[in-house]
Amino acid sequence: MRLALPVPMRIALDLAAEAALAGEVPVGAVVTLDGSVIATSANMMLAGNDPTAHAEIVAIRRAAQKLDRPRLEGCDLWVTLEPCAMCAGAIAHARIGRLYYAAEDPKGGAVVHGPRFFAQPTCHHRPEVYGGIGAGEAADQLRQFFAIRR
């Protein structure tokens, strides 16, 4: 039985599940503005032969195009896995207001693990960060995905 989650995280988790079926690491991301979904994506690294096509990056790009502006002030990002350093940098440059993520990533995460990007003095924008929303389901998706490949 699925727990009731905020709609954007539910969408992100569903996108992650679809990504896994396509052979991509199961990560999904949703950008919202005033509670409305602006853009979505799942990991697309394999599909596009693009190492930068993480779910967060693609969703941020789509949101910026839809809003026709390079900064996403007032927008929130919902993602199923703690962002890596590249994605944390994009979040800061896009001026995302709030970051919501599901599972922590002790190996590759850069928000509460690793470099703790937003705590660095060279980071010029720090979103509000809320972790653990849907963490169990997101972690299960990742464990199942990698168990099949080992």
Structure in words:
The structure is a single chain. The chain is α/β, with parallel strands linked by helices and 150 residues long. Helices cover 38% and strands 20% of the residues. The chain has 5 helices and 5 strands, in the order αββααβαββα. The mean pLDDT is 96.
Reading side by side through the largest sheet, how are the strands ordered?
2-1-3-4-5
Strand content: 15-25%
Order of helices and strands: HEEHHEHEEH
DSSP, total strands: 5
Global Rg: 14 Å
Distance between the termini: 27 Å
What is the subunit arrangement here? Answer: single chain
| Average pLDDT level | 96
Keywords:
150 residues, alpha/beta
SSE blueprint and pairings:
Layout: H1 7-21, E1 28-33, E2 36-42, H2 45-48, H3 55-67, E3 75-81, H4 85-94, E4 98-103, E5 128-131, H5 135-149
Parallel strand pairs: 3-4, 4-5
Antiparallel strand pairs: 1-2, 1-3
Helix pairs in contact: 1-5, 3-4
Short description:
With 150 residues, this protein is an alpha/beta fold. It has helices spanning 7-21, 45-48, 55-67, 85-94, 135-149; strands at residues 28-33, 36-42, 75-81, 98-103, 128-131.
